[in-house]
Amino acid sequence: ANLAKDILNSYSGSSSLVKSAYLTLLTGKILELCELEEKEKLNHNIIDSIFDYCHNNFHNNITQHDVANALHISESHLSHIFSIKMKINFRSYINILRTNKACRLILQTDKSIVDISDECGFSCIRSFNRAFVRNVGMTPTQYRKNFTDKNFTPFWDDRFFIG
User: What is the pLDDT of residue 35?
Assistant: First the structure.
């Protein structure tokens, strides 16, 4: 909570969209680093395996069915893990991973938004834009303009991003 306040205070002159983008990126990092409460060793190993599989494959067109099959668990068990233990659904989690990767590519490359969308695993530009706005609070084009036009130096480093 203090880190979020410090970040927002550091950019107090920024628009609410920019602050929202910072908080979204912070949320992605927290999600990436969170340790789930271990009740059973088996569940902990399954959760680690789910994270590993998702982090290694989010750029592909993966589904909950694909992850369940790859890890030899039922889709309902996988769904239960996401909804009860992680408090987020599978598709939202994958879209957060993809959006975090897209944020990095937007700031660090000159690739087109369409190419970034493809590289991050979105099936179409419309889905990419919807997920990006939902997770960052602005369109990918606005994000690039807001941060690159001002010689923006992000407060994070590459350790905070996936892939």
Answer: 59
Q: What's the rounded Cα separation, in Å, for the pair 45 and 115?
A: 35
Three-class SS of residue 1?
A: coil
Residue 111 binned pLDDT confidence (cut-offs 50, 70, 90)? very high
Tell which residue, 87, 89, 34, has the closest CA to residue 63: 89
* DSSP secondary structure letters along 114-136: HHHHHHTT-SSHHHHHHHHHHHH
Q: What gap in Å lies between CA 75 and CA 42, rounded to an integer?
A: 17
**Can you read off the two tokens belonging to residue 98?**
């993809």
- Cα gap 43→85, rounded to integer Å: 10
The confidence band for 19, taking pLDDT boundaries of 50, 70 and 90, is confident
Phi, psi at 14, each rounded to 5°: -80, 160
How far, rounded to the nearest angstrom, does the alpha carbon of residue 63 sit from its chain's CA centroid?
Answer: 16
Q: State the pTM of this model.
A: 0.67
Using CA atoms, how far apart are residues 23 and 55, in angstroms rounded to an integer? Answer: 21
Of the CA atoms within 13 Å of residue 2, those in its CB half-sphere come to 0
Tens digit of pLDDT for each residue in 48-84? 899 899 999 999 989 999 999 999 999 999 998 888 8
